Amino acid sequence: MLEWMANIGTVAATRFSRGPAVLAYLDRHFFIRPVRLGEFVILKARVEYAGKSSMEVRIEASKESPGGKQELVTMATASYVAVDEYGVPRPINNVLEPTNEERRVYEEARKRYEERKIKIEDRKLRRFDLTDPTKGLRWRVESSRWATPSDAFIGNLVSGGRLLAWLDEIAGLLAARYSGGAAVTGSVDETAFYAPIRVGDIVTIRAGITYVGKASMEIMLDVIAEGAYGQARHVCTAYYTYIHVDSSGRPALFPSTCPAMTMKGSCSWRARKEGRLGMRSWRRLRRCGRALGLSAHLLLLILSHY
Ligand SMILES: CC(C)(COP(=O)(O)OP(=O)(O)OC[C@H]1O[C@@H](n2cnc3c(N)ncnc32)[C@H](O)[C@@H]1OP(=O)(O)O)[C@@H](O)C(=O)NCCC(=O)NCCS
């Protein structure tokens, strides 16, 4: 699903900028509903604001059951940067002039664009930060692979969608291993992509469990790309939340045989600092959601966009 979403965003950004575009920033998003075999997934993406070479894009994924009922699965905002064939930013060869109806959406996207500028101020330094943040975590996995031509969209640049699919696969594997059963992706935290992956690079993904709740866990992923002759680059650090589910897809508590993972123990500074929503806030959200006829996840998703 993440790969499809990143790809549809790339299509929108490429069309708008009339040339190649790469995924540069993916905002936090939640998966509200599962998609089951036999259901159709409908993906939509639109450019809402354009800077000099970057674009604010909104991506929506809905599912359609065989009866024709459509439901939102997830909605994400992201930033794409127009690049030349070597991956160097280029000016966008188009102008976005919002109509009166589009004005509100346009202004919101412009606000996101300005806030993003502050978040990525240190990007030129982060590109060379090769420290392993998963080091010392008790539940950890590391995997390396070659980036091949089939992973690339444009020239020799690996698509953001392909990288997201690799991350989901490795994190999903760790989540399943920890819980001893199935686990589904619940949310993906905001992720900045500092450096591209090129065909021929060796891509190393390091993953570690940073937080464990009753049925959910947070997994940190860190990606390094190494060229045959070039310097190693830090591509991104991402945080995925997985939920352990039973055979009918409902959240299930971790089996009591799972080793405990306390906040004090091997959890990362991030999980401790930012934390997940407290249980009390979560209950309150559920109550409000029930009153409005919405699930707590959907309500949180809506609130996080305002
Ligand atoms: C995106 C990228 C090309 C930007 O390179 P850069 O040298 O930082 O670019 P610049 O400083 O010239 O900034 C160019 C524009 O990109 C924006 N930008 C740069 N990094 C960004 C990021 N991580 N998120 C959002 N916007 C970003 C800048 O704000 C600027 O916007 P504007 O021109 O509209 O004002 C570079 O960081 C990169 O290649 N990242 C990896 C992209 C990728 O391959 N994604 C898929 C991963 S497999």
List keywords for this structure.
Thiol Ester Dehydrase, Chain A, 3 domains, 5-stranded antiparallel β-sheet, 32% strand, binds coenzyme A
Provide a descriptive summary of the structure in words:
- The longest helix has 20 residues, at 160-179.
- Strands 2-9-13-12-11-6 form a six-stranded antiparallel sheet.
- The protein has 306 residues and is of the alpha+beta class.
- Mean pLDDT is 86; it is low at 262-277.
- Helix 1 (2-17) packs antiparallel against helix 4 (160-179) and helix 6 (279-292) crosses helix 7.
- It folds into three domains: 1-121, Hotdog Thioesterase (Thiol Ester Dehydrase, Chain A, Roll); 126-275, Roll (Thiol Ester Dehydrase, Chain A); 280-306, no CATH class.
- The chain is built from seven helices and 13 strands.
- Strand 4 and strand 5 (70-82) form a beta hairpin.
- Bound molecules: coenzyme A.
- Coenzyme A binds next to strand 1, strand 5, helix 2, strand 8 and helix 4.
